[in-house]
Specification:
Structural class: mainly alpha
CATH topology of the largest domain: Cytochrome Bc1 Complex, Chain D, domain 2
Pfam family, one: Cytochrome_CBB3
Order of helices and strands: HEEHHHH
Shape: elongated
Protein name: Cytochrome c
Distance between the termini: 59 Å
Largest sheet: 2 strands, antiparallel
InterPro entries: Cyt_c-like_dom, Cyt_c-like_dom_sf, Cyt_c_BACSU-c550-type, Cytochrome_c550/c551-like
Strand content: 5-15%
CATH superfamily of the largest domain: Cytochrome c-like domain
CATH class of the largest domain: Mainly Alpha
Oligomer: single chain
Strand order of the largest sheet: 1-2
Organism: Metasolibacillus meyeri
Number of strands: 2
GO molecular function: electron transfer activity; heme binding; iron ion binding
Helix content: 40-55%
Number of domains: 2
């Protein structure tokens, strides 16, 4: 290492590539194993609102977007907004899980 000043950088690069490879093999999916060994996807609203946090805040009490606690909209209106967007909110943020996200939002107090 004393002879080659580039070696530490190569070592860090190799470690980073190995870490990226390991993380990609683990997967970043939202899956858990059910009884019987089959893998099922979690469809609870709490896990699905991860894309909402960027605008509505970590606890969904507002940020760039409005507070979602105690929202005065029906389930159908929420599903419509999730599907088609409204104002600065983009369409399709729930990607097929609109009903579960709407139920979760309506459960917030």
């Amino acid at each position: 290492m004393k002879n080659n000043p580039v070696f530490p950088y190569i070592l860090i690069l190799a470690f980073g590539i190995g870490l990226i490879f390991f993380m990609s093999m683990n997967g970043a999916g939202n899956h858990e194993e059910a009884e019987g060994g089959e893998t099922v996807e979690q469809n609870d609203g709490a896990a699905l609102v991860q894309s909402c946090i960027g605008c509505h805040g970590g606890d969904l009490t507002g940020g760039m977007g409005p507070d979602l606690h105690g929202i005065a909209l029906s389930k159908e209106e929420i599903v419509e907004i999730l599907t088609n967007g409204k104002g600065s909110m983009p369409a399709g943020t729930a990607k097929g899980n609109e009903e579960a996200v709407a139920d979760y939002i309506l459960s917030l107090e």
